[in-house]
Design goal:
single chain; 285 residues; alpha/beta; Rossmann fold; 5-stranded parallel β-sheet; 3-stranded antiparallel β-sheet; 10 helices; globular; binds adenosine-5'-triphosphate; ABC_transporter-like_ATP-bd; AAA+_ATPase; ATP hydrolysis activity
Length: 285
């Protein structure tokens, strides 16, 4: 094969558009054995993540080929029980499947999460992440398989479970009392948890007047208020600014250190370094 003259190669390099990072990333994923459709989806999601942080992917993730290798290694990391068991089993899914009418969304899903562990559920839009989380929470019945979960569960849905006309304090009271707390304890716990997310709820402000990110903070606090052993979080940081987002992952680490189990649905693949198990549901069925 004829060698490409040095000058020409340099020129080509300069001519390469700065935003071809996603293409190089996708090509490297395919080269590493990822299915083309999944590689495309990962590339789109990754570029979107960098966009959300107003950064270009090169600056945010580093060279495309290195990030592709890192990500493939993360996604292929063996699932459960590779770490020393850190606590009792809080959640065990065995052969879980779900069909909606004729549409099969989930097949043969296995996952074990112990106290002191964090699991991430990742995959394309529509592949069944939220459905699986609802199955974990006992809100949706699986078509097949078994689910064992600890009794004290906190569930944070993707779309808020809040009432616009109530204040944050009223939410703390309502949810806390339903979980067996006194109103006073519920309010003080809620206020404390809010402070960990750098939020001081107004005493009289109804939730409908809060920003989307702040409503999501409330949603997260309500899931955690009663001190559950297992936290099930469906993309709980939507609308968070950078500071709140970092606070959130700090919280996840502190829950884990306190021996709780956390399952989080996420599209933010660069956070996989913080988790013990990655359950990749792949492309939509
Ligand atoms: N109650 C339902 N009845 C019928 N179909 C449903 C129901 N709930 C979910 N689905 C379908 O199951 C599939 C998986 O939905 P799900 O919300 O679990 O996906 P997801 O991976 O969480 O998506 P996203 O990343 O967009 O949040 C979708 O095609 C959805 O339309």
């Amino acid at each position: 094969m004829a060698r490409v003259p040095r000058r020409r190669r340099l020129t080509d390099r300069r001519a390469r558009p700065v935003n071809d990072w996603p293409l190089r990333f996708e090509a490297e994923l395919v080269r590493l054995g990822v299915q083309p459709q999944r590689a495309r989806q990962l590339s789109v999601e990754t570029a979107a993540q960098a966009g959300e942080h107003a950064a270009d992917p090169d600056g945010f993730f580093g060279p495309a080929h290195l990030y592709a290798r890192h990500l493939v290694a993360e996604l292929r990391a063996p699932l459960p029980d590779t770490r020393c068991p850190t606590g009792r089993v809080m959640l065990r899914l065995t052969g879980v499947g779900k069909r909606f009418r004729r549409r099969t969304v989930l097949t043969g899903v296995d996952l074990t999460v112990r106290g002191g562990e964090v699991a991430a559920i990742v995959g394309a839009n529509g592949c069944g992440k939220s459905t699986l989380l609802r199955i974990c929470a006992g809100l949706t019945t699986p078509t097949s398989g078994t689910v064992h979960r600890t009794r004290r569960v906190g569930f944070v849905p993707q779309d808020g479970g809040t009432a616009g006309w109530l204040t944050a304090d009223e939410h703390f009271t309502l949810f806390g009392v339903a979980a067996g707390m006194t109103p006073r304890k519920a309010r003080s716990t809620g206020t404390h948890l809010a402070s960990l997310l750098a939020w001081r709820p107004g005493r009289t402000q109804p939730v409908q007047e809060l920003s989307g990110g702040t409503r999501q903070k409330l949603n997260l606090i309500l899931g955690e208020l009663h001190g559950p052993d297992l936290l099930l979080l469906d993309e709980p940081y939507q609308g968070f600014d950078q500071g709140a987002y970092l606070d959130f992952w700090r919280q996840v680490r502190s829950w884990r250190d306190a021996g709780r189990a956390v399952v989080v649905v996420t599209h933010l693949l660069h956070e996989l370094q913080h988790v013990d198990h990655v359950l990749d549901l792949g492309a939509a069925a």
